[in-house]
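Batch manifest, entry 17 of 40.
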Amino acid sequence: MPHGWREMVAICMAAGAAVAASGCRERADGADRGRAAVVVAATGEPVTILPPLADETVARDIGDMVYERLADLEPGRPTIDSTAYRPRLAEGWERVDARTWRFHLSPTARWADGAPITAQDVRFSFDAYADSVLDSPARPNIAGRMTVTAEDSATVRIAFTEAYPEQLYDATYHVRIMPAHIWAEIPRKEWAADTALAHLVGSGPYRVTEWKRGQYLKLGARDEARTNIRELVWRFAPDPEATLNLILSHAADLMELAATPTGVARVERDTAFRVVSYPSAAYGFLGFNLAAPGAGGRTRLALTDRATRRALAMAIDRASLAHAVLGPRAVAPPGPMSRLLWIWSDSIRTIPYDTAAARRALDAAGWRLRSDGVRHRGGAALAFDVLVPATSTSRRQLAIALQEAWRAVGARLTVTAVDFPVFQERLGQGKFDSYIGAWLDEPSPRGLADQWTRVGWGALNYGHYANPRFDSIFTRATREGAPEAAARLYREAMDTLNADAPAIFLYSPDNSAAVSRRLGDVAIDPYSWLSALPRWTVH
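Output type: structure tokens
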């Protein structure tokens, strides 16, 4: 699966249980809370934080404190806007020609072991991300798309194989720079199994000081002038409930997601914490299977009819549904996107909620209501199934709400909940009528190609949606270098997709982080929620 387009297993469930011993309230795994130490409660423990291999969210959170990019994209800014990037390891850059950029490394940049950071480190890091042995999640964005060379010790040239608007994005967003003097002599097939803390050397504000597997990981500030927080500790819990318990027992200061209304309310009742809301990069949807009916027979045939799908979409009050299941800050997206994606616009045309119009449209499509309350056409009932992962309470709730809404217009929906591996397997095999999915956005909208264009068949376009007009407009948008013009094209493409109703886009939620009141100046980047933490203060 391409990096960043991760299927959301569930919106976290939260509930309380045991309270930790009172001693943990002052000291968590050896962290002296009085010395500006901060403890983060995390669900799950990463296998590694080495950048090319770090795939879990927690691994990236920790890695972002240790490793750096050449430059950082400002949250919410267009990926094709060259003014949206801020220096990190590179103090400056310029375009050489239509396919080439030159980056100038900061002369003061040093690894945590004191060695200078050089252009060879940058070349080495890009080569590692492109290596099929490591098979980094970001590899599709790097391999075969660019050549990285060192012009001198402090100057890097990145030459792309073709001209396209998101070169600067691909040169900076995906790759965290690693020290060649540590990793070059270690065979790459051994990297995943390497657990030596001495090898986890980065250029960021923190270094790894201790990792007790199964319990916690500690980071220490490299230079107290660069951060107000001297020590960071990640405590690992096996599930969201246990993670919340670390917060409510005051054994931790931070938790990324207390997603359910119950979990949020419990945090809000604790006067030592506050809830900080910020937009999520996720969006959820019901997708129809538009492939040839096959084993689905006449049931599936109903969903391949555009007029029927549009009528079903009219019967859903998306905004009310999002609020009911995901909370009052959730919204119904205008297409396949979260609120973070820079192409979002309320001007995108969507199918309006109108149950009377839905009934008329179903009548016009030949669906006749029978005494059993279900519509039929040509001997086939307007009845189909929705597939959901059993691990996701929110998606099951959405499925039940859709079931009720469609019953009111004469459509019968059954709900099948399966374990997540089975859910993924059935999607890949096309063994479903419809499904409720959830995806995480990256800052670039081009990843939508894998989900909704013909190119995505065999990838993430499980429903086999295909419209040549949509594909054409979308492709033009990816090639447009002016942000405003590109946004207009992307939105035109969304208008086309929405008119076909290959899916019903149900929600884009807010995240609710639990934050200790001892922390001040809290700012959260939704794509990397702790990236600004070095600038937070501790009371």
